[in-house]
Amino acid sequence: MASTSDIRNGLCIRYNHDIFKIIEFLHVKPGKGPAFVRTKLKSVTTGKVIDNTFSAGHKIEEVRVETHKFQYLYNDGDTYHFMNTSDYSQIQLQKSVLDAPDLMKEGEVVTVLINTEDDSPLSVDMPASVILEVTHTEPGVKGNTATNATKPATVETGATVNVPLFINEGDKIKIETDKGTYKERIKE
């Protein structure tokens, strides 16, 4: 059994007869009253995100997980297919389990958390950022760069990202996967 002091991002816990992954947390010590931990939990079975507050010292049931590197192969509808890079076995995951499925390019290597009790895949951790090519965007208007103006751009995976006006079709851009936001243009 773990306690609230062991809470960290990515920790998988058993809560309300389901397995949740902690995606955000904040230890709060008010001036008056006991300390508590405010968390944002994502269900690994349904993908639903809930907010929960644990009082300090509360016991939580940790789920033992292993991480394995998997390569994203393809998707058919809401089913995504991955291959283990060490033993070449394949697994299928539903779209609801994935954090940013619209930013995954075929061949991308991701980290899959696997429950050690029953060898079931729990969630997929994307790299911190991905590099994708812009396939469609409107041309920027010259002289309109005084403000932090952005425009929508469609990348090779089909996702739409807001980018600065100087980005053109064919440019490669780095995107932060946790927020789905533009980071920088990649020079070749």
Brief descriptors of the model:
single chain, 188 residues, mainly beta, OB fold (Dihydrolipoamide Acetyltransferase, E2P), six-stranded antiparallel beta sheet, five-stranded antiparallel beta sheet, 0% helix, 54% strand
Summary, kept brief:
The chain has 188 residues and is mainly β. It has strands at residues 2-3, 12-15, 18-28, 36-43, 49-55, 59-62, 65-76, 79-84, 90-94, 109-115, 121-125, 129-137, 150-155, 160-164, 172-176, 181-186. It has three domains: 2-62, SH3 type barrels (Roll), CATH 2.30.30.30; 65-125, Beta Barrel (OB fold (Dihydrolipoamide Acetyltransferase, E2P)), CATH 2.40.50; 129-186, Nucleic acid-binding proteins (OB fold (Dihydrolipoamide Acetyltransferase, E2P), Beta Barrel), CATH 2.40.50.140.
Description:
There is one protein chain. The chain is mostly beta strands and 188 residues long. The protein has 3 domains: 2-62, SH3 type barrels, CATH 2.30.30; 65-125, Nucleic acid-binding proteins (OB fold (Dihydrolipoamide Acetyltransferase, E2P), Beta Barrel), CATH 2.40.50.140; 129-186, OB fold (Dihydrolipoamide Acetyltransferase, E2P), CATH 2.40.50.140. The protein is built from no helices and 16 strands. It has strands at 2-3, 12-15, 18-28, 36-43, 49-55, 59-62, 65-76, 79-84, 90-94, 109-115, 121-125, 129-137, 150-155, 160-164, 172-176, 181-186. The strands form 3 sheets. A 6-stranded antiparallel beta sheet has the order 1-6-2-3-4-5, with no helix packed on it. The protein has a 5-stranded antiparallel beta sheet with strand order 9-8-7-10-11, with no helix packed on it. The chain has a 5-stranded antiparallel beta sheet with strand order 14-13-12-15-16, with no helix packed on it. A hairpin with a 2-residue loop joins strand 2 and strand 3. The protein is flat and about 55 Å long. The chain starts with a strand and ends with a strand. The mean pLDDT is 84.
